[in-house]
């Protein structure tokens, strides 16, 4: 019996080998001749921004690309077998059993009309156990293994009765339940709160060790990839830019694109926008209070229960400075924003903006106040009316407040558009023809066109890629320096807060946990919760030795 | 207050339904009264009958038709509430008996038509998802909009022409035979099946794009299991809505279909009553239609929470909120 030694040794160490993979939807090629190898028991990250093709590669590995819609060429060898050559029926035998999948958004990854138990049985069936009761025991054991406190209750629950973090645990449980060799995890934590992100990632890594899994990890976060994986594949526009050991790529990226990604990771460059902001502040000097919140409380009542959404919160923001509100879902930050904008009335306490009380105003006075106080929403994909052109979107506030004549309004629109770094040829476009970053710049321009004194920024970059985020933060810093704007910056991303804010309030369950200057809170957190939040910022191994160049001077957005 | 939320929700919906039926009765009553003349005068003042107005007056008084309209309405309503539908002016028989005689034929037709339309809609929808594009999936998807464009009476005439006259599969002289009923049901159910199929296909397509469909697929489920559990089941809610709306259409359409297929049902009863201004019969049939329509929609409302657990919100609130601390 003749055995090819090379093939055997390869098969023993390799679990997944992607060769020359190209994927096209119609005429649009989204993956171009990508190739990489995942060794058994290792974790490999595909990293890139939206449109980089990383999710498409994951789908190709899982065989989830519609055969009619996508044209796939190349080879995907799983344990030596070419998945692309398998007919659907044979591929189905591998799904779940050999290759498990952990999706991005846990809230929509389970069928809402069926219990979690019944969906878990679909996975348990792959174990070929003798009966339903044995399957049930396997399911409950797995739920206990992934750290769910009450497996019986989870088994009986429907998806909408559970939090996002619990659902993601369930989904990880369902993926590992049939004991696959490979897990494909597509941004498994990007939809979760930061402290939960860290716990979910810890769980994935624990299971990887305990169950001898190989992991294909899709992420846009370079720091996360470096912290959690052995090897990274950097993708841009569907093509591989760089492959290497995670620490190596992270510390000393070889390709231009990876270098730019590294520069745009907020956690690595905490002082990137500091210089610009300082310049503006020094030029102006101190100038009163932008926002003052004094002992504000607000409760909501529903179904006979009462919830204290905001509980005696106080903070103030000096004019021309940036204050950050940090907290996870349910911390009360959204309610605070609504109170500040006069959309809700506080049960107790007082809010003033630019020296003027927000509540107890007449309709006209509130209208005048709002001219000075504008909001930028979280999601630029839904906050702009898709049927309007950019010109009208930005001009609408001017029309509403009847400012200036036609020519003056046009001039102001153009002026504002340029100030956020967009060119005038975008004026006639509608939002569908803009990228996410361009949309958010239009939303910022729309807020700025009235020349307000105070801007409330509600997670303005959480829907955007890191390099796009860096561009938006740059624009915000420059605008603040130029016009002395006061920012209230709502975020759950502490590394962004560290970059952009002067002062910070950490909120939890509607109460202030800790507040103060950003440097002080970040370097010497007094509360355990604040420390937990800061610890959840991904910290790649040996990150201390990483050079963190301040590259903002060379950055063109 | 001790009632469970589900029961008290159902009770309030039933109360609403009763109010709707009474309003429908009142509206019909008033519309009929706006029409010129009253049935007794119209019948008896014909010069050929030789009655004088003086002779007719006591008859009108006997039927209460000389009373003010609000008083007549009150009398009629209080009888309707206890199930007394009055006496037919034409035949002098109790209206309830006339309606009960005609009802089985119409109900059989409407129910068979509903069954036919659900079956057809399901087959079309299944094919739209599972037929390979090469084998005419596009053609299947075009069926609903094409068959919507054909009125049911044309279908009826066509079916009689082909299957009764050409192939002799049924005889129009015995309209209540199984075969004749089946073809009448096809004629009546076809446009309804097209509507249900369109809604079903749209929703199945929607479900197939959901994350949980892809995740379920990654669990190695077969096509059939995916279709049944993760496409059809979540799509069933809008189908229930469509069926509830379609019942009105089936009732209205059955009048025409009965005429074409020569069936003696509510359709022929209404036709006779309308031509002779037999008000009690007309009122009874319109109220019956209102009762059926309201009852079906009430049933649909009560079925929704069974199909979608997210609509059982009052009950869900009783499950203690998960504590993020300990569980995640």
From TrEMBL, chain A:
Annotated ABC transporter domain residues: 16-262, 291-534
Alphabetic keyword roster: ATP-binding, Nucleotide-binding, Transport
Transcription regulation in keyword set: no
Protein's UniProt keywords contain Flavoprotein: no
Compartments (UniProt record): Cell inner membrane
Membrane topology note: Peripheral membrane protein
Species of origin: Roseococcus pinisoli
Protein name listed in UniProt: ABC transporter ATP-binding protein
Gene Ontology MF terms in the entry: ATP binding
UniProt cross-references to PANTHER family, sorted A to Z: D,D-DIPEPTIDE TRANSPORT ATP-BINDING PROTEIN DDPF-RELATED, TRANSPORT ATP-BINDING PROTEIN
Similarity remark: Belongs to the ABC transporter superfamily.
Main location: membrane
Domain of life: Bacteria
TrEMBL record, chain B:
Record has Nucleotide-binding as a keyword: no
Cytoplasm as UniProt keyword: no
Highest taxon of source: Bacteria
CDD domains (UniProt xref): TM_PBP2
Gene3D superfamilies: MetI-like
TM stretches of this protein: 12-35, 107-127, 148-172, 178-201, 239-261, 281-304
PANTHER family reported for this sequence: DIPEPTIDE TRANSPORT SYSTEM PERMEASE PROTEIN DPPB-RELATED
UniProt record similarity statement: Belongs to the binding-protein-dependent transport system permease family.
Protein name: ABC transporter permease
Organism: Roseococcus pinisoli
